[in-house]
Amino acid sequence: TRRNYRKGEEHGSAKWGNAGTLNKKYRDKDASENKLLTQSVCIGLDGKKHRRNLNILVVGGSGAGKTRFFCKPNVMQCNTSMVILDPKGEIVRDTGGLLEKK
């Protein structure tokens, strides 16, 4: 419709993002109030502030680093409730003591 028309953007206006831009838009100033997404990108826990869903599904093959690089760092921050499937019990073994202290 005429109301939604943007001249010069007939084929979209998407562009590649970078860590700095994403962090500026989504990261909370208080580091303990962020969920780690990658080594350099975080998203604040206040979903109303940035209007993004905070649900995450991590999928990868064996040895891809799902536990080591995503799950454990977020569990160690202990800043939100999580549901983690841990069939081998390695996550609770490695982080359970930390969670009991907090």
Specify the helix fraction band: 25-40%
The gyration radius over C-alpha positions equals 18 Å
Largest beta-sheet characterization: 2 strands, antiparallel
Distance between the termini: 55 Å
In percent terms, what proportion of residues is strand? 5-15%
Count of strand segments: 2
**Mean pLDDT across all amino acids:** 85
Low-confidence segments: none
Q: How many distinct domains? A: 2
Structural class: mainly alpha
Q: How many DSSP helices?
A: 4
**Envelope shape:** elongated
Q: How are the strands ordered across the major sheet?
A: 1-2
SSE order: HEEHHH
Protein name: Type IV secretory system conjugative DNA transfer family protein
3D architecture notes:
- With 102 residues, the chain is mainly alpha-helical.
- It folds into 2 domains: 42 residues, no CATH class; 46 residues, no CATH class.
- A two-stranded antiparallel sheet has the order 1-2.
- A hairpin with a 5-residue loop joins β1 and β2.
- α3 runs parallel beside α4.
- The protein is elongated, with a radius of gyration of 18 Å.
